Amino acid sequence: MKHFLSISLFTLLLFGCGEPSQPVAKPNKKQTGKETYTMYCAMCHGISGDGVGTVTLDRPARSFIDGGFSFGNTVEAISKTTRSGIPGTPMPPFADVLDDEQINKVATYVRSLAPTVQEVDIEDTEMVVRNRPIVARGTLPPVQDGLQLHPRGVVVGNPDGFSYEYRADDVRLLAIRQGRFVSRADWGARGGSPLTMLGKIIVLVVGGNPQPMFTTLNGEPLHAQLVATNTLGTYGTISYDLLDKNGGKYATVEELCKSTTLTRALIEQVLTINTVKPFQIQLPNDTVMDESTTVPIGTATRTIIHATKGSE
Ligand code: HEC
User: Fold this and answer.
1) Helices (DSSP H) in the chain: which residue ranges?
2) Which SS3 state, helix, strand or coil, does residue 216 take?
3) How far is the first Cα of the chain from the last one, in angstroms, to the nearest whole number?
4) Atom of ligand 1 nearest to the CA of 78
5) How many A from CA of 57 to the centre of ligand 1?
6) What residues make up the domain containing 295?
7) Which residue has a Cα nearest atom 5 of ligand 1?
8) What is the pTM of this model?
9) Phi/psi of residue 290, each to 5°?
10) What is the C-alpha separation between 222 and 242, in angstroms, rounded?
11) Are 228 and 285 within one domain?
12) Which candidate, 270, 306, 301, 286, places its Cα nearest to that of 178?
């Protein structure tokens, strides 16, 4: 209820007050960072940046003068937070309200409120996907309570804000997330360090613990051995060989995932397959595929479609 009130108050502040002839929602280009701050941020963060604004929030806004920025304190990091907001908190996104220049100015102003500390770039703790995909390797914490940790994991983050979590000992897609990517607090430990997933799960493939997806025609599971990770345009890819228990090769697969939006987001898991021995795809529960589950010798593609959970 309180939350609802604060949000509607926020909307009111942004769009509702002032003279009807002078809508507050249209900041002018020449506005300084401080003016933008006063108009759009001070109600929550306080005029002086102390975190005490006029709006009551169920979660306190950040005090900038104390300098505790958990998403990095460079102007770039602050701009990014301002642009996209912090999902799940009252911090709203301003991408549709302010243009890049205004965001840069207000972020510079916010930065100036903080004590002069050494700048911590966001990259030091959080990997941020910008225009290109990022592939991170490391230990995956259990995707859900009660599931196992995977010491070898790969997470692919694409610029569209979706990320894909794979176990890498036997390549299997475990979960699909949306939002921020990965933080790696202790990256010094050379790949063995745990990755912290920051996005929200929108697909848990077979409860986060899928069986092998490929088998021989007789139903013997094939091992999916990681060969390489790569990028293809704005997608991260993962390639693997399908091997039987004697190491006999059935196929090489290059996989990428992309989102498409119909009434809600669908994820397409696209497999480009080079087959030397026919095999079978065992579709994970709650997915559909465009073509036959039997894959013949030669080159083929298969697209597996995952429906995502609603956003709430
Ligand atoms: C409706 C209230 C509200 C408004 C308006 C608002 N913020 Fe926030 N902001 C918050 C809250 C709450 C948090 C803390 C979120 C959390 O719990 O991590 C926050 C966090 C932040 C952070 C993250 C600091 C960190 O930890 O790294 C930045 C940067 C920020 N706000 C900038 C701004 C800017 C710039 C504006 C104006 C353009 C603004 N905010 C407007 C509520 C608001």
Assistant:
1) 2-11, 33-40, 42-45, 75-84, 100-113
2) coil
3) 17
4) 29
5) 11
6) 214-307
7) 41
8) 0.55
9) -75, -25
10) 6
11) yes
12) 306
Residues lining ligand 1, CB < 6 A?
Answer: 10, 40-41, 43-45, 55, 57, 59, 61-62, 69-71, 78, 81-82, 86, 89-92, 94, 106, 110
Residues 25 and 49 in one domain: yes
Tell me whether residue 167 is in a domain.
yes
Give the end of a domain, one of 182, 208, 234. 208
Residues in the chain: 312
Q: How many CB atoms lie within 10 A of CB 89?
A: 13
Closest residue (by CA) to atom 2 of ligand 1? 44
Residue-level pLDDT, tens digit, the chain, 312 residues: 334 334 444 443 444 333 333 334 555 667 899 999 999 999 999 998 888 888 877 777 777 877 666 666 778 888 988 998 877 778 899 999 999 999 999 999 998 887 665 555 545 577 888 888 888 888 888 898 888 888 889 999 998 889 999 999 999 999 999 888 888 755 444 444 678 888 999 899 999 999 999 999 999 999 999 999 988 888 999 999 999 999 999 999 999 999 886 556 789 999 999 999 999 999 999 899 999 999 999 999 999 999 887 543
Amino acid symbol at 247:
G
User: Which 8-state DSSP code applies to residue 233?
Assistant: T
Take residue 55 and report the two structure tokens written for it.
């709006």
How high is the pLDDT of residue 26?
56
Task: Give distance in angstroms: CA of 28 to centre of ligand 1.
Answer: 21
CA of 42 to the centre of ligand 1 (A): 10
User: Contact 214/221 with Cβ under 8 angstroms?
Assistant: yes
